[in-house]
Specification:
Blueprint lengths: L1 E6 L2 H16 L3 E7 L4 H7 L5 E4 L5 H22 L3 E5 L2 H10 L2 E5 L6 H7 L5 E5 L10 E4 L18 H5 L8 E6 L16 H10 L3 E6 L19 H7 L2 E4 L2 H9 L4 E4 L5 H8 L4 E4 L4 H15 L2 H14 L3 H12 L16
Parallel strand pairs: 1-2, 1-4, 2-3, 4-5, 5-6, 6-7, 8-9, 8-10, 10-11, 11-12
Length: 356
């Protein structure tokens, strides 16, 4: 098959990278197109994935519309030349539109219920929409659900083993109490009007008082007093660090889920809730989600409690139960892409969880 994969966010690189390699190893012709966004292109280069950049970064919602239009127009030109069988993406606005024009099958993966603009622009044109089972919404007959989360496409133990050298590289000791903290930019279309922490400086100070070493990753400029806490290692080392951290505290749902599936308790501080975050909280107790007006105080109280209690065996047991219930999502990606490009019916029973 000829397959196009579109990448518009750093998380998309992680999600698709193992599937791209698997599909290529099986003889399929892969074409990866990207948009510059944070460290997206750097991650593609570090992963050794051949790609072409079709558009640059945006600085606002207004400029994002222009950048997206440029990306979609250039993707259409490339697709007409390639004549793909399948176009795959997360969110999939450009992928679904272009596929409908060139006669390809579009396979869209998504897990963000409140991204109403993306859903309105992508879902009507998409051929297949793949969502986690915990996704809160009915897409109709084109929806395929699976027992997993996006993060298990790259952090399932069959795909990822953390490298302990990250501690030395970050200047940390094995017995340090480590908290990874994440601040979001709130400039996505689905984040307008939302919020997280009231005062990041207060969060760092309270966590340090509890005995934690805080490493901070941020999509926004930091107050001068927090610059020394900024995480400075290569972006593809973050998952190693999350695996060895004692707690994650942050405004980003993706990093909260990444920490959770690695067995690191996550304190999620965001006025928005998501289906997969709720399941990781309610079913597995690996995320503590705070969405109300008191989210700053409540989340900080929980994070300090986790740091002071220091009970890693509890998180390991909860992670083990999660992994027994959920599948390697890279296998889902490969299956759905290959199914979309063939006339055969898929064997979805082969990808059910195996508690044994």
């Amino acid at each position: 098959m000829r397959v196009i994969v579109t990448i518009q966010h750093p998380g998309h690189v992680h999600f698709f990278k193992h599937a791209i390699r698997t599909l290529e190893s099986q003889g399929h012709d892969l074409h990866v197109f990207a948009r510059e966004n944070e460290v997206t292109v750097e991650l593609l280069e570090r992963a050794g994935i051949d790609h072409e950049v079709l558009a640059g970064e945006s600085s606002s919602l207004v400029s994002l519309a222009a950048v997206q239009a440029t990306y979609e127009a250039r993707l259409l030109r490339r697709a007409r030349r390639i004549d793909p069988d399948v176009i795959a993406a997360i969110g999939g606005v450009a992928a679904a539109h272009v596929a409908s024009v060139v006669g390809a099958t579009s396979v869209v993966f998504y897990d963000t219920e409140h991204a109403t603009l993306i859903k309105k622009l992508a879902y009507p044109f998409a051929d297949v929409v793949c969502t986690p089972e915990c996704y809160q919404g009915d897409v109709g007959s084109k929806q395929i659900t699976y027992p997993g989360y996006h993060e298990l496409a790259y952090l399932h133990p069959d795909r990822f083993e953390p490298n302990p050298s990250v501690l030395d590289d970050a200047g940390l000791e094995p017995d340090d109490t480590i908290v990874v903290m994440r601040l979001s930019s709130w400039d996505s279309s689905h984040d307008v009007g939302q919020g997280g922490f009231d005062d990041p400086v207060d969060v760092v100070g309270r966590l340090e008082d509890a005995g934690a070493t805080v490493l901070l990753t941020s999509e926004v400029d930091l107050p001068p007093e927090l610059e020394t806490y900024r995480y400075t290692l290569a972006p593809d080392r973050m998952h190693d660090l999350l695996a060895y951290a004692d707690c994650f505290v942050g405004e980003g749902a993706t990093m909260a889920a990444e920490a959770a599936v690695l067995g690191t308790p996550a304190v999620y501080v965001n006025s928005l809730s998501l289906g997969y975050v709720s399941e990781l909280a309610d079913e597995y107790g690996l995320v503590f989600s705070y969405n109300g007006d008191d989210r700053h105080a409540k989340s900080l109280e929980r994070a300090v409690s986790i740091v002071e209690t220091d009970d890693p065996s509890t998180w390991r047991r909860r992670r083990d139960r999660l992994l027994a219930d959920r599948v390697d999502v890279t296998d889902v990606i490969v299956r759905e892409v290959e199914t979309a490009g063939s006339d055969t019916d898929p064997d979805r029973s082969a990808l059910t969880p195996n508690p044994g």
